[in-house]
Amino acid sequence: MLAEHLELIETIGLNLFFLFIFGFIGLSIHDVMNKNDVPKMGRVVVYFVLFLGCAGFIAKGIIQFIWENQGVG
């Protein structure tokens, strides 16, 4: 059974890895901004850029899922 579902397990593991990495990046950025007294506008820009990076991975996953279900990829 493990060999049959190995690709699914790898995909889930990789997605969880990205989730943890983005979480740690967000926490470290938050810590650095708190220590350096970054203005509110700077914080908004930094978090927006971090969100766009996360959104790119989410969009890639959704597009890949749709294409695989339609038989394109």
Describe the protein in words.
- It is a single chain.
- The protein is mainly α and 73 residues long.
- It has helices at residues 6-35, 40-70.
- The longest helix has 31 residues, at 40-70.
Helix content: over 70%
Structural class computed from helices and strand pairing: mainly alpha
Roughly how many Å is the radius of gyration?
17 Å
Instruction: Give the DSSP E fraction (strand runs of 2 or more residues).
Output: under 5%
List the helices and strands and how they pair.
Blueprint: H1 6-35, H2 40-70
Helix pairs in contact: 1-2
For this entry, give a set of tags.
73 residues; mainly alpha; 2 helices; 84% helix; elongated
In brief:
With 73 residues, this protein is mostly helical.
